[in-house]
Amino acid sequence: GIEHARMFKAAAYHLRRRSAPTELLWTSRTAHGPQLEAAQTLATLGIDNAIPFPLITDIPEDFHVTGARLSSLTQALAYRGILFETAAPICRSTDISLDIIRHRIRACTERTPSVAAIWMSCRDPVFSRSVADFLWKCIHGAHRCGEYWRKVTHLEHREYCDVCDVPETIEHILLDCKASGQATIWAMTRRIWLRKHHEWTVPTLGDILGCSLLSVKDEDGRPKPGRTRLFKILVSEAAFLIWKTRNKRIFEPTPNGIWSSKVGVANAWMHVLNTRLAIDRTLTHASSKTFALKSDEVLRTWSGI
Questions:
Q1: Structural domain contains residue 32
Q2: What is the residue range of 81's domain?
């Protein structure tokens, strides 16, 4: 269950098979030196390469150590080991979502994220628990829309949007549907972003699902943490509100309900942002402890908005 276990085992094998002593030097990231710079160069080349380098990880049986030391084994580590040995079933919708995210992030950053990095991005502390669950289900294709209803007897008609008469996929709901409120929410999001920043690109499905992996930079190519955090909040919260608006319209229909009007959707979006700002302000208090935010971080995110 240890990440990169095969490479660690191969490295340990090459060290153990040497007859001479081997010394390892631990250095910090800020240290300088020809060897460290060479290692960082090789690491950068490996990250930027779209095709992974072939690595020989075969180990002779005499050096292949299996199992775990009981004195160092914890319940969590044992559980991870069991999960690692159990092959996860392949899900077509999940693979499609992961490919969409990888291609979009590659196009924006020139780096292809690993599958593990994509799943971990759903746990970004910027996201609330509800938003994180929503994005996780989007990637898994676990929401009750589109093809989900094809397998439900007598409800097959729900596979199609009752307004647009096309398959109601998550992409259609978030970006194209005429009745989900997405046009109003994205238009307001654009106006909010342009109050402080100069450019806005209409998000794609890859941008929404992989927003935690994107980094907003200035004209000189330097990362801007405040802009990046605001982008994550706006895109993720907007997508989640669109999904909730769609659900309210379908499952809780009311005559002339607020969810069916542009004004109602706009008010709901402003309420979401005001609530999120209030939470960020509260988290700057020392009493928040583990979840505390620095005042500078909140100011960089919201000032000018």
A1: no
A2: 1-20+44-87
